[in-house]
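Input (structure):
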């Protein structure tokens, strides 16, 4: 097995992947220890769980392979050794799982027979179970697609509602602008009327002053005569 986790020898991300891989390896080893003690359907279920753990371990190992390229060369040699140990452990797990999966008598229990006809029936049953699994996965993908479609529909409905609200705001703003234009027009007309009245008042005032001035001049002239 690999050496204990050493975060000083590599990046934090590599150490995180390494910790996750150790957990997956522990789970895988536990499943591999359980399989020899089981038969029939429980054995098949444990084998599927072990296969899933192997897939997860392989993905983590690929992430670690990429991440170790970013580690300084001064510490990479120790990282490479730990990485090779993980690869060795994973290969050993794969071989052990394959050996356990090939044990047909343990896999099918008392139903296993060396009779070719029985083998054909078991093969057909295996194919049926495989088809059932594929159907289940297809159903899961269909449900996921339906969920995504429902979420998309909800998002679209929300977007339409937002657009409708924005349209109402724009129409309200346009109404306010038109009303404001009406107020401005009335204000302009009022100012023009005031300007005309002021001009008229100015003319009247000038006329009155002129008349008064003429009267005063006339009075003064009449006194000197």
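Output (sequence):
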């Amino acid at each position: 097995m690999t050496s204990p986790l050493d975060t000083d020898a590599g990046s934090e991300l590599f150490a995180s992947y390494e910790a996750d891989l150790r957990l997956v390896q522990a789970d895988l080893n536990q499943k591999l220890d359980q399989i020899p003690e089981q038969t029939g359907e429980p054995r098949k279920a444990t084998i599927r769980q072990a296969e899933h753990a192997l897939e997860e371990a392989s993905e983590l190992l690929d992430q670690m392979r990429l991440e170790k390229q970013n580690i300084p060369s001064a510490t990479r040699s120790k990282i490479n050794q730990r990485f090779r140990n993980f690869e060795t452990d994973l290969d050993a797990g794969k071989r052990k799982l394959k050996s356990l999966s090939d044990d047909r008598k343990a896999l099918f229990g008392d139903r296993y027979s060396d009779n070719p006809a029985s083998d054909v029936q078991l093969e057909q049953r295996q194919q049926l179970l495989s088809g059932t699994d594929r159907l289940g996965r297809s159903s899961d993908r269909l449900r996921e697609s339906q969920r995504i479609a429902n979420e998309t529909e909800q998002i679209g409905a929300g977007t339409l509602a937002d657009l409708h609200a924005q349209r109402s705001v724009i129409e309200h703003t346009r109404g306010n602008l038109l009303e404001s234009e009406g107020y401005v027009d009335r204000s302009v007309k009022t100012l023009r009327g005031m300007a005309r009245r002021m001009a008229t008042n100015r003319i009247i005032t000038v006329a009155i002053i002129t008349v008064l001035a003429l009267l005063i001049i006339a009075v003064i002239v009449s006194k000197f005569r």
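Notes: The helical segments are 12-34, 40-67, 73-101, 104-108, 116-224. The CA atoms of residues 81 and 140 lie 40 Å apart.
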